[in-house]
């Protein structure tokens, strides 16, 4: 009797090791089992029985990873003792592999976290590089049975090669389908008197059986794996009825061919899988198109200040940055690409990357990774990597910035689960009817197979992702960059909208500014502008644009920005303060308007008074939101309260002098009301906390670096007037999804009626299934394009 290793499941031939009442094929498997049990990870074997990978003997394959040149080429990121690396691990094959690799921190205390991408067979690991070598990490994975593949291709981090296994499967299924049809052709001819055909008919059946074997085993393997994984994890999925139909058709064909009853249904089996695989290929190609359409250029319409060797400044898109360009990074700005520090005092916050809020000081000549945020004075950097090669492009989809799972996906899965149960009941009742009432066993198998195929709810599962994906592209073309599908669903349910004022409802550059106080010399104006250049606060940016001096870069020392108060810095031993009256030293200076007060070398100079210029059609936009509850939160004083009352409805809640924490707490408070779904619109800077707390956080961006991972979407200021239409289209998206659900159910009901009556062959059912999927995708595309054209004239 054969024995199998408890860990890897391989047949035990030479070595047989008993431990803890279990049998292992080698000391490596036994060691892994001990490690898992010692760390309370024995659930690994409950996810998938015999799911382990046989460990390789430890050989010196990875010592080269500790060479600095190779280390820097392999890793994704390394800063302050924390390194991120992505390894290609082809042996990842099941849910237990994913579970174990994402539990590495429980086994090895030097590992901070690990994330598996099952599709690409990769694992990204953050580890303590001060205490642990990269080679040691590679050996550790190998000892667990997950040896990383490291070669020139993975080191260069080139795009993954296209997986052609599906194309091969389609080719095998199509080849077998065509040849089996030719071999089955004599069965349809009149055999009387045709001795040759009758004599060699059994040979044709053997050939048909042999041609169908690779189709039933290899071509259908993905369906087997999916259905088995679902059963092991005690849930039902849409692949289960397909597998039952395939097996029923194959074994029934073998039986009839062996008994000489007929040549079976090998042609139907191969045709079924051929058309289903074609449908799967179509889905994959469409998903790939959607993913390609959503690259970083679509999501980050962010400008960066480029500086030349004559200190002349120019705002350009980050997508236009090239290696060797020099850029300026202000306080609280995200560094868009890997760079070298040229000038300035760098204090980098890498919390977007590592999750730890800790400032790291950098010196001139040191490398600064993309995704870090400068806290302090302005920096001059030299670009060493293009944006699409830097770490920033991975941040948008980082799990750390995702919220809850989509309820639409949950609804789809829930409907699919009950749908599978319903199909099995219909299948059993139909089988019993044809077996006992009609007494037709052959037709019973035809009916069962046809039901299981035509009723596959794949069209149902396609409705949500394709509809939302199309709408995301339409939004993107109108400069509304939505982070994920969940955001559109949440937009459709929003019933309370919270507006920030400065930088959101107002246009910073268009603000009317008047100076009151002691006249400022050109030199003083130039120094004030140099300090303003270090801040991204909307008032600072407006004042910076207003002051009529050249844009030459002037270094500022000891720059500090105190949220809610102001900024300060030193130029040639001259101390400059810009901000609130209290901040510059005298609260009695305060006026009931929006002003920025100036203290120059310890002496109060005057103030710049702002008269806000509101965005185009602001009042019409607010009036169109009459079905929503509206709140206005502003960090400024209430000087424009009376004017705002004319724009907003009478029931609008208005709060002024709000700190970032006040805004966050207000949103948290109203979210406690049952059924309240809040959308916050802010400038993406001081409003980061409120944007993250809101159910939907929308950052308004004009021409500055307004990127914030706390937001769910970025809305270009020029498209603010379309806000109501975006909300309306999000509701239309959900309506289209429900229409798709209805169409899918109609397909299944009609198909089931023909299948149960025995008037639908398995082959025709297999042809109809991908056609239904294609029609759903076509409908969603046309429907979303229609509503897009209706609202935006987008073709």
From TrEMBL:
Q: How does it sit in the membrane?
A: Multi-pass membrane protein
Membrane-crossing ranges are 166-186, 206-224, 236-258, 264-282, 418-436, 448-469, 736-757, 763-789
* Pfam families found in the cross-reference section: ATPase-cat_bd (PF12156), E1-E2_ATPase (PF00122), Hydrolase (PF00702)
Putative metal-binding domain residues: 5-75
Q: Give GO terms: molecular function aspect only.
A: ATP binding; ATP hydrolysis activity; copper ion binding; P-type divalent copper transporter activity
Its annotated compartments are: Cell membrane
Q: Name one GO biological process term.
A: copper ion homeostasis
Q: Does the keyword Cell membrane apply?
A: yes
Q: What SUPFAM superfamilies would the database entry show?
A: Calcium ATPase, transduction domain A, Calcium ATPase, transmembrane domain M, HAD-like, HMA, heavy metal-associated domain
Q: Which UniProt keywords apply?
A: Cell membrane, Ion transport, Magnesium, Membrane, Metal-binding, Phosphoprotein, Translocase, Transmembrane, Transmembrane helix, Transport
- Report the domain of life of the source organism: Bacteria
Locate the P-type ATPase A domain: which residues? 310-396
Name a single GO cellular component.
Answer: plasma membrane
Identify the InterPro entries for this entry.
Answer: ATPase-cat-bd (IPR021993), ATPase_P-typ_cyto_dom_N (IPR023299), ATPase_P-typ_P_site (IPR018303), ATPase_P-typ_TM_dom_sf (IPR023298), ATPase_P-typ_transduc_dom_A_sf (IPR008250), ATPase_P-type_domA (IPR059000), HAD-like_sf (IPR036412), HAD_sf (IPR023214)
Assigned protein family: Belongs to the cation transport ATPase (P-type) (TC 3.A.3) family. Type IB subfamily.
Record NCBIfam families: ATPase_P-type
Q: Which PANTHER family match?
A: ATP7, ISOFORM B (PTHR43520), CATION-TRANSPORTING P-TYPE ATPASE-RELATED (PTHR43520:SF5)
Q: What is this protein called?
A: Heavy metal translocating P-type ATPase
Q: Which organism is it from?
A: Apibacter adventoris
